[in-house]
Amino acid sequence: MGTDGSGQRAAIDLEELLATRLLVQGNSGSGKSHLLRRLLEGSAGLVQQIVIDPEGDFTSLSDAFSHVSIDAADQSLAEIGRIAARIRAHRASVVLNLEGLEMEGQMRCVAAFLGALFDAPREHWYPALVVVDEAQVFAPAVAGEVSDEARRTSLGAMTNLMCRGRKRGLAGVIATQRLAKLAKNVAAEASNFLMGRTFLDIDMARAADLLGMERRQAEVIRDLSRGQFLALGPAISRRPISIHIGDVRTAARSASPKLVPLPSEGLEDMEDLLFSPGAQDVAPPPPPPPPVSTDQILRTISDRTLAPVPDAPVLSDQAQEEVMVSVFAEIAAEAGLQPPASVFQDFISRCRMRGASVTLDMAAFNRRLALARAGIVDGEGWDDVIALAASLPEEMLAPFLGLARAAREGAPCPEDAELAILYGTTSGGRARRMLSFIEEKGLIHCRTDLSGKRSVTLPHFGWTTAPAIPDPQRPPRMARIAAREAAR
Q1: What is the CATH number of the domain that holds 99?
Q2: How big is the CA angle at 410 (ends 364 and 454), to the nearest 5 degrees?
Q3: pLDDT digits (tens, 9 = 90+) for 283-337
Q4: Which of 152, 269, 300, 433 has its CA 20 to 30 A from that of 92?
Q5: Which domain holds residue 204?
Q6: Is pTM, for the whole model, over 0.70?
Q7: Rounded distance, CA 206 to CA 195, Å?
C-alpha cells in the first residue's frame, strides 16, 4: 500500500482482508479515493473486484485492467439484478457507475445490485472485494431527504454485505467522509481500519475508539497529511501504524483544484468581452404576436379536424401465443427470486414490447409460469396434475410440477438445489421441508434406499421418478456411516 513511518513497505494481507473487511475514513481531500485505487490496482488479477462508484471516478480502471464499466442510468432495476447475478456467475470485475442518478435512485440501484450479489446460488460464492465509495450515502445513520423505503432497502443491503457477506465470499471495503454519518451496525462489522485526516471532534473520537487509542491521542488524526492514514487490523498490523499511500497507475476523471493564473485583460477589455455582441451570438427572437381572443381560439378548435391515429399492427392469436411462450421461457431460464407481482409486471412489459397484448390474469400467469419453470413446454395433458395441486400453496406449484414431470418421464428425482430454485429460494433445507409438507398432504410418497438415493412417487397417477442422490455434494448415507466408522 505504501510505506510506514520508518520507511518500510506497508502491505495488506489480501486473504485476511477477504475474511475481515475494511473501513476507510477521511474528510474530503484526505486521499480516500487514492487509497482505494491503490488497493484495487494492487489486487487486480488476484481477486474479483466489484466497485460501487457514486461519482464515476473509478471508470478509468477499465482502461488499464479488465474491469467492465456499467452505467446504471441506462439500466432498470430488474436489469441491474440480472447483471449482478451474471457478475457472480462469471467472476467479472466491474465498476457500477452511479453518476447519472439522483441520490434516491443511487440508493435503490445499490440495494438491487447488492441484493442480487447476496442472493446468488451457493455454487457462485466466489471470493470478491466489494468496494463502496461514499458509503454514508447508502448506509446513513439518520433519515435524510430520501424516502424511508429507499433508505431501509439500501441500509439493509449494506448491512447484509458487512454482516453476512463473508460466508458468501463478499468482502466489504467501505469508505466514508464522516463516521458520524455512517450507520454504526455497518461500521462495527469491519475489523481493519485506515483512518485519514479529519477535523470534527465527534469523528476523531470515533476513529480513536476504533483504533484503540486514548481520547487525548485523537488529536494526531487532525495533523495527518494528504495520503497519510493510521492503520490497524489483522490484515495490516496488530498495532496502529502510519502509512503513506504510494503512487497509482490510473487517475480519476476529476482532480483536486489547482491555482491557475487569472486573465491579464484590463477592465475595458473585459467589459468588451462580456457585453459586446459576438459573431456567433444568436439574434434576439422577434416580439410575440398580439394575444388571440378566447372566442377565436374556441372557433379554431371547433373547426379543426385532427388526423386519425393509425392503428397499431395486431398480431394473430397464434403469433401472440408464440410471443408469450418465448417470454415465459426467458423468465423461467433466469430463475430469479423476485416477488410474483414484479415478475408479472416484467412479463407484461416484455410482451408489449414485442407487440403482444396480455389477457392473462395473475392466477393463470402463475400456472403457466410454474409449467415453464418445471420444464413443461406444452401444458396440454397436465390439467389433472394442476387440479391435484390446488390444495398446495401457490409457491409450491412449480416444484410439484417439476416432480410430476420427472416421475411421468421416469427421469431421476430432482436434486434439493433444483427444487429450491423452483420453490423460490436457495436453501436446500426449505426444499426438504416443502417435500415433507407435500407428502403429509398425501400427494407424493418419498423413498430413500440404503445407498442414499431418493425416489418420489405420485400415487394418484402411478408415476415414479428414477432414484437419485438428493444433493450430489453430500455423499450417500451409507458412505457417510462407513467414513465415520473408519475414523473411529
Answers
A1: 3.40.50.300
A2: 95
A3: 677 777 787 777 777 777 666 666 676 666 677 888 888 888 888 888 887 756 6
A4: 152
A5: 2-245
A6: no
A7: 10
